[in-house]
Specification:
With 293 residues, this protein is an alpha+beta fold. 42% of the residues lie in helices and 13% in strands. It binds a DNA duplex (13 and 12 nucleotides) through residues 20, 129, 131-139, 141-142, 178, 182-187, 189, 225-231, 234, 246-253, 267.
Length: 293
DNA sequence: TTCCAGGGGTAGA
DNA sequence: TCTACCCATGGA
């Protein structure tokens, strides 16, 4: 068991359950034990299961493994968990703003702000593409099949698999992704992305720590096939940049009802403008906004 | 059968 | 920059 410290204020449960990602393979959320698990391959080789739970001052992580893993492996676990749960991120400015808005008062109390993400940007781009123009239950199915069919299992629990790497997806036929994994027209997007990353042409992971201006990064994300305005904003959120709103059917519905009652046509521009005053915290203000009051 | 879901690409204006 | 149209999948 290792303890990874988090910047205060921190709530493990608030971070882990912040959005649907904790329900997408190879993540799993255990309601009874308030535990987040994830199958992960360490760069040194072994496939392990990480069991993450809240602990005083941070996150307690248990690493299940069939083989011994090295000190370097342990360092990777710390780095991955820290990235996934944003343990070092500073939300003090956002929390100060939340104190000025009744619909966001609970954010401070519940220590919200952190949104769960995958260890790699590749995984988050694929998952984001698989949320577009479909239902949540179909997204879960697509991700589950992708994980189960294309990657190696965890030896202590063969039903559990890691998320496939670009190199594992790249050689697959598009027809397989369409017919078996049932990604629909998203197949070509996922395949092109995997091939570009696997070949080294596209270095997605470097975008995790770039100081590139947000608008330029947004244009780069949108240049990926399958990534439009919604997906780009969602990915910027995952990268820790909250100044774009991901306008999807849910946002149109709740923002439309609350701020444009009775108006028949509300443009995406108008929807996004509602949260303009939140500046760099726009996405979080929208995400944690208490709609039912 | 038809509609639509946490949209995106493309063509054409 | 905006709009119309097409794109697959499966549940309601």
């Amino acid at each position: 068991m290792i303890l990874i410290p988090a910047r205060e204020p921190f709530s493990f449960v608030a971070a882990a359950r912040s959005h649907g990602w904790c329900r997408l393979a190879p993540f799993a959320w255990d309601d009874e034990h308030q535990e987040l698990t994830r199958i992960e391959q360490l760069e040194s080789g072994p496939v392990v299961r990480l069991r993450m739970a809240g602990a005083k001052g941070g996150v307690a992580v248990e690493v299940e493994s069939a083989v011994e893993f090295t000190e370097a492996g342990l360092a990777q676990v710390r780095e991955k968990v820290s990235w996934m749960l944003r343990l070092d991120e500073d939300f003090s400015e956002f929390h100060a703003l939340c104190r000025t808005e009744a619909a966001l008062a609970q954010v401070v109390e519940k220590k919200q702000g952190r949104l769960l993400r995958s260890p790699t940007l590749f995984e988050d781009v694929v998952k984001t593409i698989l949320t577009t123009n479909t239902t949540w239950s179909q997204t879960k199915g697509m991700v589950a099949r992708l994980v189960e069919m294309l990657s190696q299992p965890f030896s202590l629990d063969p039903a559990a698999h890691v998320f496939p790497t670009p190199a594992q997806i790249a050689p697959v036929d598009e027809e397989f992704l369409t017919q078996q994994v049932r990604l629909g027209y998203r197949s070509s997007y996922v395949l092109e992305l995997a091939r570009r990353v696997a070949s080294g042409e596209l270095d997605l992971e470097s975008w995790k720590h770039t100081d590139m201006e947000t608008d330029k990064l947004r244009r780069q994300l949108k240049a990926l096939k399958g990534v439009g305005d919604y997906a780009a904003a969602n990915l910027l959120m995952l990268l820790g940049r909250y100044d774009c709103l991901a306008v999807d059917s849910w946002a149109r519905k709740v923002i439309g009802q609350r701020f444009f009652p009775g108006k028949e046509r509300v443009s995406d521009r108008e929807i996004a403008a509602v949260f303009d005053r939140w500046g760099k915290w726009k996405f979080l203000a929208y995400w944690f906004y208490k709609w039912e009051t």
